[in-house]
Amino acid sequence: PHDMCTCDRNWQGSDCSLRTCPFGKAHVDTPKGDLDFSLAVGDSNDVVITGSTVYPYGTTEGYPLMADTAGNVLDNTGHDYMECSNKGLCDRGSGQCECLPGYDGAACQRASCPSNANSHTPGSGTEGSNTNFKVYNGKSAFLGAGRLSITQTNQCSGHGTCMTIEQLSYLDYNNVYDLWDKDMTM
């Protein structure tokens, strides 16, 4: 108890020198495997590795432990919160996600819109990267609904508008799209 570091928030490693990157809903996730070396992968009810920096409330070896609003545990769930949304690699030195091609955002949490920009990896946080996106802010889609519009240069070659699936749905006779990827699929 006297020869170990207890890391501050967003720091990890045996000497607390490594940064933790932002988390987002995973585009794709899988069971994490045998984390406690018991030679078996537990199900969604078996919480292991509690109190770690990355999983302070614990994690499961199987698919994420999820429940509906009534408290019923759901089997074979997906899209749990993962570092860099499971679509990027964490730079432990800077604490920034290096997104895979086709994804952007601080946590690689959304699909990128096509761009003719010669920039760094989208969402990398480096100068010149496409970390923001241009959303539709016309007269009908989410006017006054508190949605933010962030202008992104060179999206859609400067001749189009990048929209989320939620916004596209709304523009189609005010349909409502409220699934896990409503703000992620562009």
From TrEMBL:
<protein>
    <submittedName>
        <fullName>Sexually induced protein SIG 1</fullName>
    </submittedName>
</protein>
<keyword id="KW-1015">Disulfide bond</keyword>
<feature type="domain" description="EGF-like">
    <location>
        <begin position="75"/>
        <end position="109"/>
    </location>
</feature>
<feature type="disulfide bond">
    <location>
        <begin position="99"/>
        <end position="108"/>
    </location>
</feature>
<dbReference type="InterPro" id="IPR002049">
    <property type="entry name" value="LE_dom"/>
</dbReference>
<dbReference type="InterPro" id="IPR000742">
    <property type="entry name" value="EGF"/>
</dbReference>
<keyword id="KW-0245">EGF-like domain</keyword>
